[in-house]
Specification:
Distance between the termini: 55 Å
Number of strands: 2
Structural class: mainly alpha
Helix content: over 70%
Shape: globular
Strand order of the largest sheet: 1-2
């Protein structure tokens, strides 16, 4: 019984806290992109995304109301994503990716209020990185859904969409999303349609403005801290 209490206490400390667990899962999600090398590897990617769901719900000091909404969105996302892994159908794929996108958008807006309005600390800096990664993953899901619903929306993909397009196909969309967010733009993958071009430009604009706002906020906080130290007597 004592060991069981220690286990639950350790689990709670891991889930409830600051942004570092969410950042760890997002980094793992980025490094272990869903390459098409077997269902086991794709299951690992699902496992890390589940970690993102849990950390985003329980690990970011949300109010009770926000946690309830996050649970309402996160639970069906978890169920459908794992269900689609073992019972792949077009409906489950679209539903799973749509729910994942909806959850990430909600998480981004709920975390943005914390990282932009809270006092600048190491934890808040980790939170800003988390939001940046989540923006990239959200657009990757959006681009994947666009190509699935309208094949040919993007040029340069090495694989065509299939019934179960996890794997290297979605991995390429993650790659495209982040080079667009960072405004690198190698040109190996390009949006072919008007809608794809619009969202690609929108992601680039968001990436630029987000970094500019965060840098300005950090500089302002540093300046205010320096000014306060100068005013302190002694």
């Amino acid at each position: 019984m004592k060991h069981l209490k220690h286990f639950f206490a350790g689990t709670r400390r891991f889930l409830v806290g600051d942004f570092k667990q969410l950042l760890i899962f997002l980094l793992l999600l980025f490094v272990f992109r869903p390459y098409n090398i077997g269902i086991d590897y794709i299951a690992i990617w699902h496992l890390f995304f589940t970690g993102v769901l849990l950390a985003a719900i329980f690990n970011c000091h949300h109010s009770r109301g926000v946690q309830i909404i996050a649970l309402i969105l996160g639970l069906p996302t978890f169920i459908v994503n794992w269900w689609s892994l073992f019972r792949p159908t077009e409906l489950l794929f679209v539903l799973g990716f749509s729910l994942s996108l909806l959850f990430l958008v909600f998480a981004i807006f709920s975390l943005m209020s914390k990282v932009l309005l809270g006092k600048v600390t190491a934890d808040i800096l980790r939170g800003t990185i988390c939001v940046y990664f989540m923006i990239g993953f959200a657009f990757a899901l959006l681009f994947t859904l666009m190509e699935f619903l309208e094949p040919g929306s993007f040029n340069g993909l090495t694989e065509r969409i299939s019934l179960f397009p996890h794997g290297h196909y979605h991995s390429e969309m993650v790659y495209f999303s982040f080079i667009t967010l960072l405004a690198i733009g190698y040109g190996d993958i390009t949006p072919a349609g008007d809608l794809g071009q619009m969202f690609a430009v929108l992601e680039g604009i968001i990436g630029h403005f987000y970094l500019a706002i965060i840098v300005a906020r950090i500089v302002a906080a540093y300046a205010m801290g320096s000014l306060s130290q100068k005013k302190t007597p002694g």
